[in-house]
Design brief:
The protein has 7 helices and 6 strands.
Length: 192
Amino acid sequence: LYVRQQASKIGFPLSVVNPSTVVGGQATGETEQIGGFGHLVGMTRRKLMLFIPGGKKYWLPMVSDVVLGDTIVYLAQMRNVRSKTYSFTPNKTESMNMIELSRLVSTQLQILKPRLTIPTSVIKIILTLGVGKFFNIPTGTIGFVSKKVFDNQATNQLIREMGISEIFNESLLPNIVSDLDYRLTYSDETEM
């Protein structure tokens, strides 16, 4: 807020980029950050995802790391910049809901698909009561799951100008899940 206020005061154009959950964007699905979506994959592979957070109205907005990086570079080199905020989320109506996403992850990991949905408010309470620490699940994990529709018109217009067709390509999800599964399996060995 302070940076926005000062930029406005002196007439400095400020581009603010608000990314959703950042995942791999290459054909390999390589996702170096194992937080965010990686927590969902990790809990599923540990057979702790016996339920679906939120249900059909909820989703996990994701952005490709390549699209996000390319856009930041583009904005940094742009001339005649106007102050704008870019919300890097795909369109909710064109994205998987939490039921579809949870089942895709389970299928990819060859684990029994969850059927029961639990409200996110209940999950937050359970995690803050200490269950999260017991199972090594960060309490903020559920914060990535949302039922909100984000205004991404400015972002969509910007990426079209760049020649990019979409913020995130869901067809990469099986590769992303496989990459995260590999990283989570061998993370202890790579830290040595």
